[in-house]
Amino acid sequence: MSETFEHRELLHLLWLVPVLGLVFVYGFARKSQALRRFASAHLLGHLTPHVSPGRQRLKGALVLAAAAMLAVAATGPRWGQEYRALPRKGIDLMVALDVSRSMLAQDVVPNRLERAKEELKDLVDVLSGDRIGLVTFAGAASLACPLTINYGAFRMVLDEVDVKSAPRGGTLIGDAVRLAADSFVDRIKEHKAILVITDGEDHESYPVEAARSAYETQGIRVFTIGLGDPRQGARIPAGAEERQYLVHDGQEVWSRMDPKDLEEMAAVAGGAYFGAATRDIDFREVYRVIDSKVRERELEVSQKQVLIPRFMWFAGAALALLMLEILIAERRAPRKVG
After folding, report:
1. Which of 47, 156, 210, 270 has the greatest number of C-beta atoms within 10 Å?
2. CA–CA distance, 48 with 4 (Å, rounded to integer)
3. In the 8-state DSSP scheme, what is residue 185?
């Protein structure tokens, strides 16, 4: 039989019981010494004829036992097992993460993609019962992680994401939104959101129309994050070596974050846009905005095996001992002389 204590450190309170016992012994000894000084042994029997030393000791023992029971109750003892139904409320959040080569641009440190992955891990830390999934996209979109409450599994998938996670190059944001919308596990409207993280360079996939359709037909709000500098931008690394950048027609390719489509997507889909000239985006704050706009619902009821609290047994025993101590009189009933 497994057993445990919620507050095991409070077991040290049991040391107070022998200390309290020593206080009682000292008090009884002082009282007896004071009475002996006041009167001789012959007179004590006449002054306190009905006081019972045995009853006094019994009352003290009951108080000590009650104190021990209370100390154990304070530790929160648990043993025995039962199953409890745990309703879980939350939202469904699908993340669409751009893994195109332009996400390797280093206008965000260490680069756009790695920053997005790091911030997403911080976002996962504030989830409490929400389901989260991951779609990766470039020239094509794919479901990397279905909706789950296994946040550890989501982090593992996220760790493996890189620019090779998409089968071909490009940036088709609209396709990613459509796949994310189709990846929710039910057709209940509301309670759902898509978070698109990209540098905004879309290649003719009609992202605004995709966001509008997801919101109007399925009640899915779309939130967007633009990563990168919208003004100067940055060059795109072409290989593992430093200072080797992507070249097209003899010119180095520069990537600038394009907020236009992202702002429109959020506007038509009841969401919000984060980015513009701001390079440091707090994804936890992004989640708080999402949570304020998307209503929670009861997602499922799970069964959890728990240990049964037993503190009330010890608290009840302490109360019974104290009541018994009150009922026991220190004086014996005088004998009737017949």
Report:
1. 210
2. 49
3. S
Q: Which residue reads 């021990």 in tokens?
A: 68
Contacts of 8 (CB under 8 A, 6+ apart): 75
87-300: what fold? Answer: Rossmann fold (3.40.50)
Close Cβ partners of 146 (under 8 Å, ≥ 6 residues apart) = 133, 183, 185
- Ordered by start, the domain boundaries in the chain are 3-76+310-327, 87-300
Q: Nearest 5°: phi and psi at 316?
A: -65, -40
- Do the strands 234-235 and 273-274 form a parallel or antiparallel pair, or are they unpaired? unpaired
Three-state SS annotation for 2-71: CEEECCHHHHHHHHHHHHHHHHHHHHHHHHHHHHHHHCCHHHHHHHCCCECHHHHHHHHHHHHHHHHHHH
Q: Which amino acid is at 80?
A: G
Is the CB of residue 176 less than 8 Å from the CB of residue 222? no
Rounded to 10 deg, the angle between the 112-125 and 151-160 helix axes is 180
